[in-house]
Write a structure and sequence with these properties.
The complex is a heterotrimer.
Chain A: E1 2-11, E2 14-24, E3 29-33, H1 40-48, E4 55-60, E5 63-64, H2 69-75, E6 76-79, H3 91-101, E7 104-105, H4 108-117, H5 133-141, E8 152-155, H6 164-179, E9 183-187, E10 199-202
Parallel strand pairs in A: 3-9, 3-10, 6-8, 8-9
Antiparallel strand pairs in A: 1-2, 1-4, 4-5
Chain B: E1 2-3, H1 6-23, H2 25-46, H3 50-73, H4 75-83, H5 85-90, H6 96-111, H7 113-125, H8 130-157, H9 164-191, H10 197-226
Helix pairs in contact in B: 1-6, 2-3, 2-7, 3-7, 3-8, 3-9, 6-8, 6-10, 7-8, 8-9, 8-10, 9-10
Chain C: H1 5-8, H2 11-43, H3 57-84, H4 87-119, H5 127-148, H6 152-185, H7 199-231, H8 236-243
Helix pairs in contact in C: 2-7, 3-4, 3-6, 3-7, 4-5, 4-6, 4-7, 5-6
The chains are: A alpha/beta, B mainly alpha, C mainly alpha.
């Protein structure tokens, strides 16, 4: 469903990768590996259509992701490096606004149970500025609980700054996405065990 | 969990920005006080002869409004750019052009509308008659959204750039000139007892052009900034 | 400038093409300038009202025309670059901008030099001069924005969008300033209401305009070559070029 075709990428004066191709079928996960600065985040942003490749293209369900961006965005859930939330808003507010922007409408009780699942039930009204790094990460990840309708998940470092319990929680959500027939692309420095087969792309410096 | 359409998403964007502005009230009030201070500086610099003050009042109020609008613009996209929420906005299934229009609307409500409301009071400081004050209010009501719209394009182009504030001024102030000319011109005409319909119509036309083109240009500039 | 564009869209090919042609354009510019100035300063009759001072229009008017023409061409290349994503288009726009700014500056200076003996002041807020001043700000804005952004590709695209926004605004600004100046000064004061044109004066101005055009092309080609070298510095053909004895 997701195809990368001959991707070329030059950032600044460096060529990050040349002629990179892969494809993902429904239910497959892709783990992007590589040392720091090798272009993992860049690759993920290329797959989202945020960046324009210097060569080649990215296709979702056969259509170019930049040209058919609106339908592509309906299928995409992207979590970037930064826990995309406003400092002055609480985790509950950040979650609701984030979901609304994604075009997902939620009932109050659904928000409650998601926040509880990710261990933020007591913290939900505190502004994000007062939360720890791990708590902010978890707040961002709560969106995964609402990603059932999004066949493509692209997650940049989803396991960073999480304790073992939270890591397990995220793994469970990723597994559910796989079972549903969705695709997951992610990066991670940590050594995580996955039950099924995981495709890998290794970027070199 | 359901899919929601354009109107709720647009409303959510506006609501979010308004909520954020209310929580950082100091930012909003700073713009307003800046406007008041700049306008008040002119009599101190020019002298208090009421006929001189009356004749420079339209220009003074409008230039102060331009500068105050510009101050507020730096905040429009910068914090969203820094914390990653801007990226999420561009990945929305709804057209970015409309979401950007939503942000500009919220920005105007918080930075432009207060200027419109307080300007008549400042006009009294310059001994402007009622007709001129009325015209000033209408002209600012038409002009300040234009300033927010044009300024949004500048703010998007200079996102994350060194010296963004000064550069933004350099880019945006020349583009503000038509609004300034017709806005101040309208108030001057009202002072002279002449018809203001021509100038106000042009201001209206400028607003329509800005509404049609600026959100698209700003959205394009945002995508360029995120590349 | 655009007949066989696709063939010359590669920076490497264009580098050689521009290098061959630039001296011709500059030579032509020199010849035309000589002819134009000769006619302007020696052949055209003395103006009845303005005396010898009016002769500055042979520099002022072509400079003003070129400043506007170059902006349009620059905006065109920016549009092409954004639409087709060709690197050379952006480079061409960047090469044109300083020349355009220079002509704007010359137009402003010569306008002031004309104003002093004619109207007694160094600056006259007439519509044309004021629009030229605003045009100068647009050029400076373009160059400043480009310089301020570190990533060259983002700089190209952002400055290109700015140029297009400026291009859309230029007619609006010009119309506004026209309206404003008639309001404040009446129709009598206008630097560009040149004295009724004798045929020789017209010829002189046309020659100077052509000269300015040839100069602009020549100089932009040279500037474009150095931009190409700078940007493609990692490419093999550049390294070979720099290694080969001159």
């Amino acid at each position: 469903m997701l195809e990368a075709l001959g991707l070329d990428c030059i950032r600044g004066q460096r060529r990050l990768f040349r002629d990179l191709s892969f494809d993902l079928a429904p239910g497959q996960m892709l783990w992007v590996l590589g040392p720091n600065g090798s272009g993992k985040t860049t690759l993920l942003r290329l797959l989202c259509g945020l960046l324009r490749p210097d060569g080649g293209g990215v296709r979702w369900k056969g259509k170019d992701v930049r040209r058919f961006s609106e339908t592509f965005h309906e299928d995409l859930l992207y979590l970037g490096h930064a826990p995309a939330g406003k400092e002055d808003l609480s985790s509950r507010e950040n979650l609701c606004f984030g979901l609304a922007q994604m075009g997902i409408g939620v009932a109050s009780h659904e928000v409650d149970s998601a926040l509880e699942e990710f261990g933020l039930a007591d913290l939900e009204t505190i502004p994000a500025r007062a939360l720890s790094q791990g708590q902010r990460r978890r707040a961002a990840l709560t969106r995964l609980a609402f990603g059932a309708d999004r066949p493509l998940w692209i997650l940049d470092e989803p396991f960073t700054a999480l304790d073992t319990q939270a890591v397990e929680l995220v793994r469970v959500h990723l597994a559910r996405q796989q079972t549903r027939g969705g695709c997951v692309v992610f990066t991670s420095h940590q050594d995580i065990e996955f039950p099924g087969a995981v495709k890998q792309v290794q970027l070199v410096q | 969990m359901t899919a929601i359409g354009l109107a709720p998403v647009f409303a959510a964007v506006v609501r979010r920005d308004l909520t954020l502005a209310l929580r950082r009230r100091s930012d909003v009030l700073t713009t307003l006080f800046f406007f008041v201070i700049v306008v008040s500086l002119f009599p101190l610099g020019v002298g208090t002869q009421s006929n001189i003050l009356r004749s420079i009042a339209p220009g003074v109020v409008w230039v102060a409004a331009l500068l105050a609008s510009m101050l507020a613009l730096v905040r429009l996209f910068a914090s969203d750019f820094d914390d990653g929420t801007l990226e999420q906005l561009t990945l929305s299934p709804q057209p970015l052009v409309l979401l950007v229009a939503g942000k500009v609307l919220a920005h105007w409500l918080v930075s432009g509308l207060p200027l419109v409301l307080i300007a008549p009071l400042l006009g009294l400081q310059f001994d402007l008659p009622a007709a001129a004050l009325r015209t000033m209010t209408v002209a600012l009501l038409l002009g300040t959204p234009c300033l927010s719209l044009i300024g949004a394009v500048g703010a998007a182009l200079t996102l994350g750039v060194r010296g963004a504030g000064g550069l933004l001024a350099l880019l945006v102030l020349p583009l503000y000139i038509p609004v300034l000319i017709f806005g101040a011109g309208a108030v001057s005409a009202a002072l002279d007892g002449m018809s203001v319909n021509g100038q106000l119509s042009v201001l209206g036309a400028l607003l329509l052009i800005a509404l049609a083109l600026a959100p698209w240009a700003a959205a394009t500039a945002l995508r360029i900034a995120l590349e | 400038m655009s007949l066989n564009l696709w063939r010359y869209a590669s920076p490497q090919t264009f580098y050689r093409f521009a290098g061959t042609l630039a001296p011709w354009f500059l030579g032509l510019a020199a010849a035309l300038t000589a002819a134009g100035l000769y006619i302007g300063f020696f052949v055209a009759p003395t103006d009845f009202q303005q005396g010898q001072a009016y002769r500055i229009i042979f520099i002022h008017v072509p400079a003003a025309w070129m400043s506007m023409f170059i902006y349009v061409v620059m905006a065109f290349w920016c549009a092409v670059g954004l639409a087709l994503n060709t690197r050379l288009s952006f480079m061409m726009a960047l090469a044109l901008a300083p020349t355009g700014a220079m002509f704007t500056f010359v137009a402003l200076w010569t306008g002031a030099l004309w104003g002093k003996p004619t109207w007694g002041t160094w600056w006259v807020w007439d519509a044309r001069l004021t629009s030229e001043l605003i045009l100068l700000f647009l050029y400076i804005g373009f160059l400043s924005l480009h310089a301020a952004i570190d990533d060259v590709r983002r700089a190209d695209r952002a400055a290109a969008l700015l140029a297009l926004v400026g291009a859309v605004n230029v007619p609006i600004i010009y119309f506004s300033v026209q309206w404003w100046s008639t309001l404040h000064q009446g129709a009598s004061v206008s630097l560009t209401r040149a004295p009724s044109m004798a045929a020789t004066m017209l010829v002189g101005m046309l020659l100077m305009s052509l000269a300015a055009w040839m100069y602009a092309i020549g100089v932009s080609f040279l500037r474009l070559r150095s931009i190409v070298l700078e940007r493609e510095s990692g490419a093999d053909w550049v390294r070979e070029l720099l290694r080969a004895p001159a």
